[in-house]
Design brief:
The protein is about 45% helix and about 15% strand. With about 220 residues, it is of the alpha+beta class. The chain has a domain at about 140-215. The strands form two sheets. The chain has a three-stranded mixed beta sheet with strand order 3-5-4. Strand 1 (about 110-115) and strand 2 (about 115-120) form a beta hairpin. The longest helix has 24 residues, at about 65-90. About 20% of the residues are buried.
């Protein structure tokens, strides 16, 4: 959290960013010759990762108030670029299934409150949705309760509370039909401890998902 402790803006780091950028450019300019050779996909992976991480650490070293939001945005962009490379490589074999936190895969603007900061950024899912259009489908996970994570029973007028009475122990529901059946004004849960790792979804965002996987008890 302290920008002054980061090495991302050191002279060595800045020089390394220039070298990485030059190597990435060389890899792209030689793509017609190299793309058919074994190891090219992995070379792209390493180049993309190196450039992305160096950019990420440069943001960490920037003391500007927006640094944490920019860190999250850079991380989301790196995830999206990796996913784009995977879908391009695997496209002829069929769809790619990705499992990650809802916030990483959702279409809407991601938000989080951290140490008095209200952070906003576009996650990997938002980028991939923009790139793939209708070829991208997002199934949101929704949790009822989880005693080991100190998540109790949801309030009846919350999205989770409604699903507790409508769905089984594990249910896959069509989001648009569910959205039409529910009011967008359902309360968002506020009883989730930070350490639980579960960000309660908002009913108003159901129109931006393609399905809901509801787990009654985790």
């Amino acid at each position: 959290m302290d920008a002054m402790k980061s090495i991302g803006n050191s002279e060595e780091a800045r020089q390394l960013r220039l070298l990485a950028d030059d190597l990435c450019t060389l890899l792209r300019t030689e793509a017609p010759h190299l793309a058919s050779q074994a190891g090219y996909w992995e070379a792209e992976l390493h180049a993309r990762t190196a450039a992305g991480l160096l950019a990420y650490h440069a943001v960490i070293a920037d003391p500007a108030p927006s640094r944490v939001a920019r860190m999250l945005a850079q991380r989301g962009l790196m995830m999206a670029d990796h996913l784009s490379a995977i879908t391009e490589r695997e496209g002829e074999r069929g769809p790619t299934l990705v499992f990650a936190h809802n916030v990483h895969l959702q279409r809407q603007l991601s938000t989080m409150s951290l140490r008095g900061m209200n952070l906003e950024w576009w996650s990997a899912g938002a980028h991939i949705s923009a790139r793939l259009g209708k070829r991208y489908a997002f199934i949101s996970s929704v949790l009822g309760s989880a005693k080991e994570r100190e998540i109790g029973e949801p309030a009846p007028d919350s999205l989770e509370g409604v699903l507790m009475s409508l769905a089984g122990s594990v249910s896959l529901l069509g989001a648009r039909a569910l959205s039409a059946a529910l009011s967008e004004h359902r309360l968002t849960r506020t009883d989730i401890p930070v350490q639980a790792g579960y960000f309660p979804p908002e009913a108003r965002h159901l129109a931006l998902v393609d399905g809901v996987l509801f787990i009654k008890e985790g």
